[in-house]
Amino acid sequence: MAGERRIGGATRLAGVIGWPVDHSRSPRMHNAAFAELGMDWAYVAMPVAPERLEAALRGIAALGFAGVNVTIPHKQAAAGICDELSAAASSAGSVNTVLVGGDGLLRGETTDGRGMLDAIGELPAGGGALVLGAGGAARAAAAALRDAGVRVAIAARREDAAQELARELEVEAAPWPPPAAAALVVNATPVGQAGAAHELPLPEPLLDGAAVVCDLAYRGDGAETGLIAAARARGIRAVDGLDVLVGQGAIAFRLLTGLPAPVAAMQAAVRDG
Ligand code: NDP
After folding, report:
1. Which of 102, 126, 131, 260 is the most exposed place for a label (fewest CB within 10 A)?
2. Which residue owns the Cα nearest ligand 1 atom 47?
3. Which residues does ligand 1 sit against, CB inside 6 Å?
4. How confident is the model over 223-243, as pLDDT tens digits?
5. Is residue 1's pLDDT more than 60?
């Protein structure tokens, strides 16, 4: 039957670990990529409580997984568990892809920063970037923007967390709520994803100062977040969390499989219903 797929003894396994993880569109994105390339691979979502993260990561090595993606809230903890880290993961202190080596060792990578830059494309000339949040995604986003030569400020509801991250990355910290936007605003909080869609992570009038808005948060049902809707209503170029999901997922796909990602199939899959 057309479209039928079989999982068998030779099927290679990958997946995503989060807590919770039911909102994730990574399974449909990666499974669509495997189908597009006719690969005998399967990708599953695995809810893992924080206190079981290390056991789960050692478990995927024992079970012969090729690797897993790691999402909220595990990215920083995963960086402390992996046996080795890529330069990007080490510099961001955050891991979103764990690769299982032939020796069973866990290698931590982050594709969040590079994937976000790929999704944004052309960066606004001048005017800096304001990153909202101080967790793993904010850390990866701020480090990637800084490395791309952008002046970065970090604002988070726990101002001490923003200050500490800014100090570590040698960028600026801004108060919470931020008093002004920047040419590029990146939301790296779950606001708009968890809870009500219409909630914004910054006072809406501040958006008037932005040229590009990038929302890492995305809705499980694929609907617009409040931030993306507000940006589009103002004619501001908006890069949504699904664009970023595909950006980071395409790089992760290549790391997991060694093959170039079928990006068009992945984009269609994440926006399909
Ligand atoms: P973390 O839990 O590591 O960090 C979340 C940050 O947001 C923390 O600073 C947290 O503050 C802050 N925050 C949480 N709730 C609120 C709130 N209601 N108001 C203001 N600030 C808040 O998460 P991650 O960094 O891993 O992920 C952040 C978001 O980005 C998630 O929604 C995640 O799904 C999304 N994401 C999407 C990607 C994509 O491909 N589209 C890639 C990576 C992440 P505090 O410490 O005080 O709780």
Report:
1. 102
2. 158
3. 71-73, 75, 112, 133-138, 156-158, 161, 188-191, 193, 201, 216-218, 241, 244-245, 248
4. 899 999 999 999 999 999 999
5. no
Q: Which atom of ligand 1 is nearest to the CA of 162?
A: 9
Contacting residues for 163 by C-beta, under 8 A, at least 6 apart: 173
pLDDT digits (tens, 9 = 90+) for 161-178: 999 999 999 999 999 999
Q: Report the predicted TM-score, pTM, of the whole model to 2 decimal places.
A: 0.92
Inter-CA distances, 161 with 145, 175, 201, 213, Å: 19, 11, 16, 23
pLDDT of residue 198: 86
The residue type found at 24 is: S
Q: Cα(173) to centroid of ligand 1, in Å?
A: 17
Per-residue confidence (pLDDT) for residue 4, from 0 to 100:
67
Question: What's the CA-to-centroid distance between 161 and ligand 1, angstroms?
Answer: 13
Concatenated DSSP letters of 165-221: HHHHHT-EE--SS-SS--SEEEE-SSBTTBS-TT--SS-GGGGGG-SEEEE----TT
**Mind telling me the catalytic residues?**
75
Which domains are assigned to the chain? 12-110+244-271 (3.40.50.10860), 113-239 (3.40.50.720)
Distance from Cα 237 to the centre of ligand 1, integer Å:
22
pLDDT tens string 7-42 = 999 999 999 999 999 988 999 999 999 999 999 999
Ligand 1 pocket test, pick from 28, 72, 154, 266 with the greatest ligand atom count within 8 Å of Cβ, gives: 72
